[in-house]
Amino acid sequence: MRFLARSLILAMSLSFVASAPSEAREWKAIKDSGTIIAATEGGFQPFNYFEGSKLTGFEVELAEAIARKLGLKLEWRVVPFDAQLAALNQDRFDFAIASHGYTEERAKSVDFANPHYCTGGQIAAYKDGPLTVAALPGKVVGVQLATSYADAAKKIPGVRNIKTYKGDPEAFSALRARKVDAWISDKFTVKATLDKNPGAGITAGELVFVERVSMILRKNNRELADKLNQALAEVMKDGTYRALSEKYFKEDISCRS
Ligand code: ARG
């Protein structure tokens, strides 16, 4: 009986340990390990994408510059975009840099660093398709799952159907195949995609909303947030940010207001 009771208590405490959220790594633990672990998606050109087997893009290079400023090695985790908030809260990495626009909904479960660029969601469609919000009633819109574009599409009155895709490349393919009438994505992603597919007959339309994009980290991980913000400010000051922004966009995409 005593044995039973004791194993019951042991089993209960073990299951508690397994289900209790573990602590996010504090700055000191990260620093002592010498390596910071970052997540991105790898399907969002020109911010984070694969060139063959190599992860690259504006955000990938920016995070690498930030890690260098912090005197740390950077280790990447490639995580589907729609899984990143949950994975962050399971401590599978220290922060994510995957073009998260600030939203109040997201801010309930994660913290945002200072913005590393400003941008907007834009419509793309065939030249004879719906290129403005006013033309979207009755139409089918394709967006990436769990994005601010999905939220924006839901708010447009009269849209017939919103189809969600795991990634933007899939949403673009659906537009090309005319499975959707319009695609909403980041204006720079739309541009990069159309530049790579000049014969597709697809064009960029109206800007639907603007947003400020930041790295996300676990709630109340204050010291890490400070370090990331400091390092971001330094790369913005020393010209590293500007060079990367020119390389990928031929302009400075930082938030100037
Ligand atoms: N900026 C948009 C948002 O905040 C989309 C981000 C998508 N990121 C990505 N790596 N696919 O929801």
Structural notes for this entry:
With 257 residues, this protein is of the alpha/beta class. It has 2 domains: 6-118 and 213-249, Periplasmic binding protein-like II (D-Maltodextrin-Binding Protein, domain 2, 3-Layer(aba) Sandwich); 119-210, 3-Layer(aba) Sandwich (D-Maltodextrin-Binding Protein, domain 2), CATH 3.40.190. 39% of the residues lie in helices and 28% in strands. Strands 1, 5, 6, 7, 8, 9, 10, 11 and 12 form a 9-stranded mixed beta sheet that branches. Strands 2-3-4 form a 3-stranded antiparallel beta sheet. The longest helix is centred in the first third of the chain and has 18 residues, at 2-19. The chain is globular, with a radius of gyration of 21 Å. Residues 8-22 have low confidence and may be disordered. Bound molecules: arginine. Residues 41, 43-44, 48, 81, 98-101, 144, 147-148, 168, 186, 213 line the site of arginine.
